[in-house]
């Protein structure tokens, strides 16, 4: 009997180990009405392994037949889509290379030429495939926007002017454009940007504390100072040229008050009309805190403004009724419109139906005293509750940055859905009417002026996280219409008349899937923005399931078939999981968009990340230990925002997770997972688009690959645009900040940050020098390194 070389038998065992999971998994996939490929491939690998173990040359030949068939199958399912080829052929290519080395051993030392040829072929295939990973995919470019469009802003200045050198508001101006007229840094010299100062806030989790940090701060700059808000609302004044600390105000927020995230997106600057210039608190900084206070400090000294509220602070818990630390919190900057501070707050997701109210309130900017409330279920009552009364509970909350219009006297409130996000049977008609919408309120009275809803009866957590951006839209007879841009998690971008709420771009109601939960029907239609380009991908299919190898792709295909999925608005289900796509972090989130009013260019970075959800019975929720944060039995990690939740007071709890492969923890849909898109608003067409974020800090099993492959990563944080022709954005999970040529989309500069850059950058000038600043604070949910860095760049 012929002796079989050891290497050949090792290869036979490897083929066996590869074939068995494909046989068992592939058979199960077929039982779910899935693809037959995996079972057939597994059978071929099993037969090939047996033949090889016996020293038969036909084992190698049979494998190569499988390889050719797999190439044809890949072409059929994925066409020329590079990422579709990776899982289907990666393992088989490695096996083919190894088997080609075994050919001489099976032929008595003969056919070395064939062996070398096949070995060389697989090396070429591997090198070509590896090299193609560095080629930009999914890139689209069209012509640059015309500079003389009617959208240009020569006659459309921001509602409140400021020096070009400043960045006075969270969105740079009152229109939240995130556009700076500075042009010293441009595509020609941006490569010379260097770090010129770094400041550390010192606000970090301490030993024994669960990491909830995600500072998300965009500093503001007024005059010669930069003002920073740390993750727990500490306010810091820095010298704009050197980054040296001038003063620091400790806001006294305790760890226990952190909700889902320790975040302070920005501060609000206010110049008093009552306090004379030169006196304390003529210029002041105002912030809403994680523990529900409204704080005002003097911009010059950092001391509390004694004439504001109770010695510098107003209690925002008044009227909310029963709550506990961490249940409600202010994380967004509070806008001031016509002398009124408008306050919203997040209510921790997933807790209970009768959670604290999502009430919106107005306070006097001079005194901090209550002026009005907008309580969804008591729309005609604007007073502050007293005694045992409180605002109506469980109503839609608003946690995103609001935008105001001083001229119209309106504030635009992006709302979420009612408490118990994934079950709507207990919601009132008023709650259903104003959830996941833009609501315009009169800043003097709190009266509701108009509502535009982006999702009807939302049970997908599609709350509006983006700050609306204001601009002027060309109307008839050369007259401009006051308008706004409303980005959404669905990737739908709506253009509205901000005076009336009427759509200015074509919007249609399209049929949506029916519900499957008894007593909780879904809306028969949902709104779609037809004219504006979609910030999203095509619906998922089994063929679009992904993985690093055949094995995790097979696992993802099985998960896909195990779940309900009928496209967008797949209804929640309890008998098996459902796929939510776009996910609640899909499309545009709190980073919002940037808009250049001089050219009509809109820049948006966005996510392509599905979720895998399932309603569970109350008994199962109890078994999983899911209780509300205000329950005596609650323990940290017991369920809540962006994860499994109790949804107490309803028949169901909720299990929520990203649509991951079971072992590798890679997303099951094909890359890219994050994108950046430029839209020419003159034509409402895509100017350029490509993946945002590399695989350097990402990879299977949570391990960084250190490869600069532009795979496109999930991102949180927004872009800014400058008159210098640059777009700056961080946000990605590879810890980088980047600069793009705004006209072409070409990446022209980047730097690796010491922590995650989940924040929106800003730019300003002082002493004739332009600076770029980013908060590198990391983000616990995004899995990036936590930090407390404020980093400034300038030309070398």
TrEMBL record:
GO-annotated molecular function: oxidoreductase activity
EC code(s) of this entry: 1.1.-.-
Keyword presence, Cell wall biogenesis/degradation: no
Stretches for region Disordered: 146-166, 501-531
Record-linked PROSITE patterns: BACTERIAL_PQQ_1
Predominant localisation class: membrane
Superkingdom per UniProt: Bacteria
Classification via Pfam families: PQQ
Alphabetically ordered keywords of this record: Cell membrane, Membrane, Oxidoreductase, PQQ, Transmembrane, Transmembrane helix
The protein's required cofactors: pyrroloquinoline quinone
Membrane disposition: Multi-pass membrane protein
Location of this chain's protein in the cell: Cell membrane
Keyword ATP-binding included in the entry's annotation: no
Transmembrane segments: 7-30, 36-53, 60-76, 82-106, 118-137
Annotated Pyrrolo-quinoline quinone repeat domain residues: 167-771
SMART domains in alphabetical order: PQQ
Family: Belongs to the bacterial PQQ dehydrogenase family.
Protein name, entry field: Membrane-bound PQQ-dependent dehydrogenase, glucose/quinate/shikimate family
Source species: Tatumella terrea
């Amino acid at each position: 009997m012929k002796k079989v070389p050891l290497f050949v038998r090792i290869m036979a065992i490897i083929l066996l180990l590869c074939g068995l999971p494909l046989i068992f998994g592939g058979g199960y996939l077929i039982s779910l009405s899935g693809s037959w490929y995996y079972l057939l491939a597994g059978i071929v690998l099993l037969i090939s392994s047996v033949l090889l173990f016996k020293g038969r040359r036909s084992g190698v030949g049979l494998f190569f037949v499988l390889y050719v068939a797999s190439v044809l199958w890949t072409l059929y399912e994925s066409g020329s889509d590079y990422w579709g080829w990776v899982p289907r052929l990666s393992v088989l290519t490695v096996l083919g290379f190894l088997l080609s080395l075994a050919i001489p051993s099976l032929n008595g030392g003969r056919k070395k030429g064939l062996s070398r040829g096949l070995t060389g072929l697989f090396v070429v295939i591997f090198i070509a495939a590896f090299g193609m990973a560095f080629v930009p995919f999914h890139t689209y470019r069209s012509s640059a926007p015309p500079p003389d469009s009617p959208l240009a802003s020569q006659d459309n200045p921001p509602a409140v002017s400021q020096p070009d050198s400043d960045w006075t508001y969270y969105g740079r101006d009152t229109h939240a454009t995130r556009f700076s007229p500075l042009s010293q840094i441009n595509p020609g010299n941006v490569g010379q940007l260097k770090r010129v100062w770094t400041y550390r806030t010192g606000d970090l989790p301490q030993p024994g504390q669960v990491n909830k940090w995600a500072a998300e701060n965009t500093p503001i700059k007024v005059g010669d100072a930069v003002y920073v808000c740390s993750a727990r609302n500490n306010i810091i004044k820095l010298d704009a040229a050197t980054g040296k600390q001038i003063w620091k105000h400790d806001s006294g927020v305790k760890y226990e008050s952190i909700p889902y995230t320790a975040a302070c997106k920005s501060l609000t600057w206010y110049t008093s009309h009552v306090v004379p210039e030169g006196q304390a608190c003529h210029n002041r900084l105002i912030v809403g805190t994680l523990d529900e206070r409204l704080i005002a400090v003097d911009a010059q000294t950092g001391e509390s403004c004694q004439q504001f509220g109770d010695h510098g602070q107003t209690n925002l818990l008044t009227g909310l009724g029963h709550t506990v630390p961490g249940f409600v919190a202010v994380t967004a900057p509070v806008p001031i419109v016509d002398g009124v501070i408008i306050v919203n707050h997040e209510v921790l997701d997933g807790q209970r139906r009768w959670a604290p109210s999502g009430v919106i309130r107005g306070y006097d900017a001079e005194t901090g005293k209550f002026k009005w409330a907008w309580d969804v279920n008591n729309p005609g009552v604007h007073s502050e509750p007293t005694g045992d009364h409180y605002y109506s509970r469980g109503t839609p909350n608003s946690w995103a940055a609001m935008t105001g219009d001083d001229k119209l006297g309106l504030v635009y409130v992006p709302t979420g859905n009612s408490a118990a996000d994934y079950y709507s049977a207990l919601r009132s008609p008023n709650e259903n009417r104003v959830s996941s919408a833009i609501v315009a309120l009169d800043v003097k009275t709190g009266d509701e002026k108009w509502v535009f809803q982006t999702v009807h009866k939302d049970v997908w957590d599609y709350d509006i996280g983006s700050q609306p951006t204001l601009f002027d839209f060309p109307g008839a007879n050369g007259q401009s219409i006051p308008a706004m841009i409303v980005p959404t998690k669905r990737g739908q971008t709506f253009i509205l008349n901000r005076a009336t709420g009427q759509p200015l771009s074509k919007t249609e109601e399209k049929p949506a899937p029916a519900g499957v939960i008894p007593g909780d029907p879904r809306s028969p239609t949902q709104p779609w923005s037809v004219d504006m380009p979609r910030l999203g991908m095509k619906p998922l299919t089994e063929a679009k399931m992904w993985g690093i190898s055949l094995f995790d792709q097979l696992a993802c295909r099985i998960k896909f078939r195990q779940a309900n999925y009928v496209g967008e608005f797949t209804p929640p289900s309890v008998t098996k999981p459902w796929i939510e796509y776009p996910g609640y972090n899909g499309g545009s989130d709190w980073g919002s968009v940037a808009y250049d009013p001089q050219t009509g260019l809109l820049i948006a970075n966005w996510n392509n990340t599905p979720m895998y959800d399932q309603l569970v019975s109350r008994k199962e929720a109890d078994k999983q230990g899911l209780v509300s944060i205000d329950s005596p039995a609650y323990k940290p990690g017991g369920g809540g925002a962006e994860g499994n939740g109790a949804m107490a007071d309803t028949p169901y709890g909720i299990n929520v997770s990203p649509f991951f492969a079971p072992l590798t923890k890679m997303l099951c849909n094909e890359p890219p997972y994050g994108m950046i898109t430029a839209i020419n608003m003159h034509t409402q067409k895509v100017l350029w688009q490509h993946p945002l974020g590399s695989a350097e800090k990402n990879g299977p099993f949570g391990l960084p690959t250190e490869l600069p492959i532009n795979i496109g990563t999930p991102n949180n944080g927004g872009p800014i645009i400058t008159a210098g022709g640059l777009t700056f954005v961080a946000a990605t999970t590879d810890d980088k900040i980047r600069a793009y040529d705004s006209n072409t989309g070409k990446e022209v500069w980047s730097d690796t940050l010491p922590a995650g850059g989940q924040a929106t950058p800003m730019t300003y000038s002082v002493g004739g020098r332009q600076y770029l600043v980013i908060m590198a604070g990391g983000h616990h949910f995004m899995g990036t390194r936590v930090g407390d860095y404020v980093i400034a760049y300038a030309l070398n």
